[in-house]
Amino acid sequence: MLTVVGMGPGSFNNMTPAAHQAIENAEVIVAYQYYLQFFEEIIEGKEVISTGMTGEIERCRQAVNVALQGKEVALVSSGDSGIYAMAGLVFEILAAETLELEVKVIPGITASIAGAALLGAPLMNDFCHISLSDLMTPWEMIEKRLHAAAQGDFVICLYNPRSKGRPKHLAKALDIIREYKGGDIVVGIVKDIDREGEQAIITSIDTLDEELVDMTTTVIVGNKYTKVYGDYMYTPRGYDL
Amino acid sequence: MLTVVGMGPGSFNNMTPAAHQAIENAEVIVAYQYYLQFFEEIIEGKEVISTGMTGEIERCRQAVNVALQGKEVALVSSGDSGIYAMAGLVFEILAAETLELEVKVIPGITASIAGAALLGAPLMNDFCHISLSDLMTPWEMIEKRLHAAAQGDFVICLYNPRSKGRPKHLAKALDIIREYKGGDIVVGIVKDIDREGEQAIITSIDTLDEELVDMTTTVIVGNKYTKVYGDYMYTPRGYDL
Question: B12, A8: Cβ pair inside 8 Å?
């Protein structure tokens, strides 16, 4: 069996018992090598298959192949394994090659949820997730979704907001959102969640310092009603107080 | 201090160590009475304040008041405490009454993420959450968001999809989505996640049996590329296999 495990943002503290158990029960662990440090204690003595950053397809294929040989395999993702992560790729590979394999997906806390908790409560009303990486989605489609999300006044969680290879994506996205919501909309920035250097910053579209944003950052743009109180950002749900 | 705790979908298995710890460390627990059964062992001997289903505002106010008296209070929500739940209401109350209180939000696994894991991997591309409850959001706004989300071909997670008081909301929502995506779009239905009677059903807009859907159900409508393979529903991410 292949278990795809979401380990949460990056510490044991936010990894569920189900995820922990799945890693402990596996005979073979497949993971991006950087993540191994987060569960060193429970994988001692197990077979470990790890590759670097861009090896997702290779890691998934190896996990599938070893599981097809009858071994208990845990394929580990950070965050939730089904949100822009490894679980879907496993099904894509199985379908493309008409392979039969029992797959179990263990959910995990994704960056938007962990980030929202650090900021206050920005996700109290309808919200969406958009990845600004155009490695696999054409930029035109990303722009179309930004327009739709801003028009519907969703709270918008931006994943992969900015990288060295895509330094202008965040600015372009915020320009589109500004057209509909205005520049004083509250924006929360969360960096290195659950890791050293964890940081939550509350700002607005107009005052945001882009240099703060890199690939380990999640950006949450509020809706028109999102407010700041003290150190917290929150979106009212509509209660009549 | 007031800690707002997301306990996940409904079993210890999906409650994080951070959530568990926050409940254990509190002197006073405030929770909807039905949820107390899920953490009975760790609240023995603690002061418990609980109210029925519609008592959210009252529960939050009580939690705030007791915390202002200097006690360590854990206010417990199911799922994630910041997604259509209690954390935002706490900040609304603090802001409305200009109260100063240290608040910590502990994230939890929300129904869409736990439900997606049971279905396969439907959330692998851009997605949104829309609550179909018009108790606090006008139905016109909900319809506007449904149009926007369908137009942007987001995967759409519907919360509060149908209840006795709102039997037609799901059908109305699916009619709007059908206009843009067609009736053969894959739909996943998850019921009673992590509880007795847990069920995951894969169907389509046209073949969905509305009677299966009630307030304990989350409905996930795929995007145009969402596929079914075996018992699983998944949305391709765009990998070139």
Answer: no
